[in-house]
Model the fold of this input.
Amino acid sequence: MRWWPSSLRARLALWFTIVLGVPLVAFAIVSYVVFDRTLLTRTDHFVEDALSAFARELANERRMAPSNAVAARTTVHEVRFAQLQVVIADRDGRVLASSAADDAVSRGTGTPDADEARALAAVAGVGAEAPAMVTLTSTAGAWRVHGRRITIGGEPLLLAGIASLRDIEDVLARIRRAFLVAIPLLLAAAAAGGYFMARRSLSPVGAMGARAAAITDANLHERLPVVTPHDELGGLAVVINSLLDRLERAFAQQRRFMADASHELRTPAAILNTEAQVTLSRPQRSEAEYRESMGVMQQAAARLTRIVDDLFLLARADAGHLVARLRDLYLDEVVHAVTRAVRPLAEQRGVRVELLPVVDAPFHGDADLLGRLLLNLLDNAIKFSVGGGTVSVALSRHGDARGGRYEIRVVDDGPGIAPEVQERVFERFFRGDPARGRVEPTETSGAGLGLAIARRIAEAHGGTLQLVSSRPGRTEFCLSLPTTAVAAAEGRGVTGADDSSGQRQR
Done:
């Protein structure tokens, strides 16, 4: 609607005016109607009482008068009512007496004569047994006509009273003028007051908007002032500050992530560049030297590929688009397969991988992602185990099929993780600490993304991955997955086809 104001202050002022104006106008209308009815009712009571008194006086006068006509004229002359004309007519409609004809009321006031009064009485249906009342209008104004049948001296007579409504119309006209002047003034004052209050109430919002607009990525540490935290504006400021807190953490994490990613990618890229330069600068090299150089570049390229793949997987997980091929599977088969796969690596490092007895564990998930999760856990345990050490894997089940869970525990007997950095083991690009025996990456070390990826895969399947404990000689990780078949598919950031054709093969 084009006429609707775009400013919030103007809209609030308009609504305030409407909310005040509607009941105000309704009050004026109701008051006017009540005044009209009240004044008209008072006039009716006055006319009825006057006609009753006139009828009594007429009856008394008839006892001494020779005829009804004489009694009527005498009564009209003796009994007078201000602003009331009384007409007495016989059964044939002839006027016996009229206060107007007898100068009881000045003719200059526009009072109808006897013929007009008789006509009005006839229109009012005075012929009925019950009294009749009607409002008529003429060029002289509005009139309230009352009529009743009485019997005097054995003859039926028509007694009519005609009261002018000019005084009532004057009072109502003054009331109308008062309302027509007062209501617009009150509405204008309400609009101005509403606009002022809206402007004053919304001024903190404008200040908050200006302050928020001045906050950029360079000064995300700044916050909006919270003057009264318990009102609506204070609550809004608290919410915005909470949003700024999350944004600041996200920006800091993003900067740290980009810095770490750049650092991790720089190392293999530098190796590739250096080896390529060395190879090109010495064209006369033996085949063995070329093979050695190509091997170094191949390892650097493989490391670069792993880092890029891991970053891409984490980016998809952050966006909630971790693509998975869900199917029925057995976790114990995944555990067996991964354990067999890592044994050659463990043997090279002099580490023994021990698979403790496991239970049958039917599950609904992505076998490849779950395998990668376990591979990251075992690879991490093997890397930080000392020669001659042992890495043990156990799979157990707790609870029933509906509310239970599977637990896969990976334990190594390495040097442990320092307590001050245990909370950071699942951070991206975190590669251990001196207590674990390695700080800087080597050609065979990871980029510090393995545990971060493992936790995201666990969360995508509705589970958790935690560092249970770590001390010299024992570090334990626990993967907990729900036993319910649908847990992996509902709201965990996992999307993909559902393949339920998996068959158990042992």
